[in-house]
Amino acid sequence: MAMKIRLARGGSKKRPHYAIVATDSRMPRDGRFLEKLGTYNPLLAKDSEDRIKMDIERVQYWLGQGAQPTDRVARFLEAAGVTPKTERKNLKKGEPGKAAKDRAEKRAARAAAAAEVASE
């Protein structure tokens, strides 16, 4: 059975509240889970102690059983010091989009044409 440690959404519309759960990866996001491991409230301040609460011992148990944390939960575990930090790369983060590249090419072509006319 493929196990995951992930977030299950609760709360009303525009007021999210998440439970950190251990579940079978084939279950729906808010569906059946095996154990609730903690909570995450994104509406609280980032420095608030109540923003993320986890039962670290149970999380370590599930990691020992082969459960894979999702990206967001892995970040929580890294911040808590349970797992080592992994290096993430977003190679396209600083790269402009297609439209911006097209505009830059047109601008460069106009500047080159203007420089040619000025040099004659």
UniProtKB/TrEMBL annotation:
Pfam families per the UniProt record, alphabetical: Ribosomal_S16
Domain of life where this protein originates: Bacteria
Residue span of region Disordered: 84-120
GO biological process, one term: translation
Compositionally biased region (Low complexity): 110-120
The keyword DNA damage belongs to this UniProt entry's keyword annotation: no
A GO term from the CC aspect: cytoplasm
Keywords: Ribonucleoprotein, Ribosomal protein
GO molecular function, one term: structural constituent of ribosome
Biased composition (Basic and acidic residues): 85-108
Family of this protein: Belongs to the bacterial ribosomal protein bS16 family.
HAMAP family in the record: Ribosomal_bS16
PANTHER family: 30S RIBOSOMAL PROTEIN S16, SMALL RIBOSOMAL SUBUNIT PROTEIN BS16M
UniProt protein name: Small ribosomal subunit protein bS16
Top-level taxonomy: Bacteria, Pseudomonadati, Pseudomonadota, Alphaproteobacteria, Rhodobacterales
Gene (name only): rpsP
